[in-house]
Amino acid sequence: MGQAERRCARDLAAAPGGSVAVRGWVTAVQRKRDRVALTVRDHTGEVRCVSQDPAVLAALEPATPHSGVSLVGEVRPGRGEGVQLEIERVESMLPAADPLPLKGNSAAADRLDYRYFDLRDPERFAIFKIFSAVETAIRGYLAEQGFISIHAPRITGGGSESGAAVFQLPYFGETACLVQSIQFYAQMAIGAGFDRVFDIGPVFRAENSLTNRHATEFTCLHVEFAWMHSHEDLMALEEALIRHVLNEVADQHGEEIEELFGLRVNPFEAPIPRIPFARAIELVADDDEPRAQLTARDERALSKYVHAELGHDFVFVTDFPAEERPFYTMAADGEGADGLSETRSFDLLWRGVEITSGCQREHRSERLYDQARADLGDAALDQYLGKYYLDMFNYGCPPHGGFGIGLDRFLMLLLGQPSLQETSFVFRGPERFTP
Amino acid sequence: MGQAERRCARDLAAAPGGSVAVRGWVTAVQRKRDRVALTVRDHTGEVRCVSQDPAVLAALEPATPHSGVSLVGEVRPGRGEGVQLEIERVESMLPAADPLPLKGNSAAADRLDYRYFDLRDPERFAIFKIFSAVETAIRGYLAEQGFISIHAPRITGGGSESGAAVFQLPYFGETACLVQSIQFYAQMAIGAGFDRVFDIGPVFRAENSLTNRHATEFTCLHVEFAWMHSHEDLMALEEALIRHVLNEVADQHGEEIEELFGLRVNPFEAPIPRIPFARAIELVADDDEPRAQLTARDERALSKYVHAELGHDFVFVTDFPAEERPFYTMAADGEGADGLSETRSFDLLWRGVEITSGCQREHRSERLYDQARADLGDAALDQYLGKYYLDMFNYGCPPHGGFGIGLDRFLMLLLGQPSLQETSFVFRGPERFTP
Q1: pTM of the predicted model, to two decimals?
Q2: Which residues of A touch B96 (CB under 8 A)?
Q3: In the list A210, A376, B170, B250, which could disulfide-bond B265, CB 3.0-4.6 Å?
Q4: So what's the ipTM on this one?
Q5: Interface of A with B in 321-340 (CB under 8 A)
């Protein structure tokens, strides 16, 4: 007896006559003395499978919700407009133990412990199907724009400049770190003349944050390119990229997202508003304290303002003061109106949450050394940073810049999920490094 | 004065009249009293740029090999069949310090230290352009076959079962590990009903190996899918995948590879030979010692035999004895001719080097527990492995299997490179975690 051809639930109506196999797991069972009806779900949908054959009934005796099955049979008209499978034989019967590891109302920690089971929920699976579609759209767009994919290392000798938020690990008698960002490696590709690169992969933050927007490991898109003129070029690219991604997601998964998540994906037509930091503070500050960055509250208030006044879910905040931006950020020409020195930098907010930080990098060697010295002190320059980063700028490094997007966070906002625990395939936080 | 439109070296001949900008770095300078000629390289090729304008000559005074430049001018017929740029103004002049960090004959360690400079070699850049093309081809093929991309975590609580070759790191008062393989997470996706998944990203091996084929961190493709019937299905998929990748690479980069590396990419037509392990040993063993795995010498000898006798650069070695395969490997039905119990497993060799290990996984709960107990002992089952891996098989987990391909190694063989140091963007080995 040969293997029957598999047919997915979604494609079953199109099956010609002849035997096909339906493979997935049981979501519902109805038994009467002389018949059985199973609902079987696979990664594409559900199908009703029925039989009155005593051999089939016997073989399906152990079938309970979440049992795995492979059922061979004929596709027949079903009740209503659909089709159903008239089961002829049971190819696999993989029973589920009792009790199941999770119930509908299981605690969040249990859901993470039994993630393989938690993810059987079609809504949760859809998150990762759409995550994959988002990634494909990103890669397609960037390739079209002449970017190549690189794979920066995740173990690094640097990173300890910035202090506490770095995971360290013993490395053959020395101490290495896990990257918080692959920016320096993307810049190395630029210094080598790669021109336009991106990297999608894990980054690590040893931060003891328990907010819904933080994880100790997450998937980050990093984009870096050479020969740009200012941070405007970065924002133009990112805007076009996000527009493309939302269009692709709406085309491919718009209906499913509306059905499962009650949300419409709205690709935007209007340009994303650009608001300089100094103006943003005027718009949202609830006190007169001078400040050099936005709080989470500021970000929410600004997005609310932009949504109400300008009708946009996204907003670029630009020209942050140098005080709170890293040393490699290029300073703006001249000073800001408030006397703070401004930078060629930006954040992108979506629905009140920051999803990007980016800037033009300082590539002029002398200025970069000055800024590094002022920020980190002379000692830092003699060490790793000097040899493996700053030195690169002595050899004709072109003007360049880049930005990162946390993809788990992007998906959280895209699909209206309450936290990264839903959009990380296997979440990592300060209290969680299993399974 | 507005920004001139950039034109890459490759596309320069197609430039219409009007000013364009050539941006890259200088590879050669010729100066006479009243004229200058620079060769400028960008990521697409080289172009000769000339001027007799005294202002341009003055601005290009600091230009030496490896200086960055952006030159605006008119495209004119050059010597021979090419074109050259008649420089009108110097938009950027980014001098290279003297001396340069590397010379033509620099030691390997220096080349890794100054990787940003080492990679300016067009041959080395080509490796990563082709790496990106390989990745795009892999993703395209797998998406067409219904696979989605997942991002498994790289920090894990498991992995210590297998002993010494795992990096450990302090994790908020506990000890976590870096993944050696994301297989268990890919299987978790299968257990959750994701059906077909792949993951491309870093994996980590704390092995003190200094061979040309080993690294402590490398980029791995992992493929896992459900509802297969035996390891034959895995090999069929991998063969089709590699055929597709080689075809794409030959189409897009075949000429360039021939020119730079003196190699022809030969997409194969004939099926990859499958040779059972027991037969492979008969073919290549130089002694009668019983053995359960192939040595590096065996692998080279077998590839040599297959190339000579069967005319193929690839060979699948199948049905390895259970003794040396991990506990999760599905046993074959019946026993092998030599009395060793065989498994539904395979390796893929390419030009004498293993690039893949794969198998059908044991999904039948009782057998899997038995195999785990026999291999790892009862204690291992009570710990991480039992709760977060074995337990999954109690709930209707479908038949499935998978394989991994080390992509740095794949590129090494594809482009005839002497070691992974050439095909890892930034190499990591036991003596190397910088830059």
Answers
A1: 0.97
A2: 394-396
A3: B250
A4: 0.96
A5: none
